Amino acid sequence: MPTAMITGASRGLGAAIAAALAPTHTLFLAGRPSAELDAVAEQFGATTWPMDFGDPDAIEAVVEPIDELDVLIHNAGVAYPATVPESTVDEWRATLAVNVIGPVALTLPLLPALRAVGGHVVFVNSGAGINASPGLASYTASKFALRGFADSLRNDEPSLRVTSVHPGRIATEMQESLIAYEGREYTPEKFLSPETVAKVIADAVNAPRDAHIHEIIVRPR
Asked: What is the rounded end-to-end Cα distance, in angstroms, of the chain?
């Protein structure tokens, strides 16, 4: 089966993507070591690839054994709810490290493995990567930057398929924290389910190879 590496797969959307791709792909689950990540790996017969986006210099050595990779899905992300005047430099630094520098640090050493099979790189972005979201200053900036990286990768690596996925709000722990920051009641039914977004991503990954889906925008009904 083709291979797919997924970051941030220990829970939420990442675990849902793993479930959606497990029937068609051999899964590599990348992220910080945890019991949650091990549990997802055991459920789907996947392997874990320990890495910390806070230490990007160590990532290349972790993925060095991979010589072919069909799909790379950048799903890991963090958000620190704050307006610009509320935000801190440390929050900006942490957000950009995980949401931008991490994907760059993982993609670059995997380019030969992706080129070898004409692979597919999927960036789980956000509606905030298209229109600035109030109260999410550093997160918005990071998602605009991630979109720029995806567009540049698509331009510079014509043998690869590169897709940016921009979902609306998803019913995850991150969303629950954001709703609490906004002082509202969290009602999961109002948001996209992780399984819905995961299916959209899996459909893009499994699209015929002559189809290059550049961008997907998904919003709750």
From this structure: 34
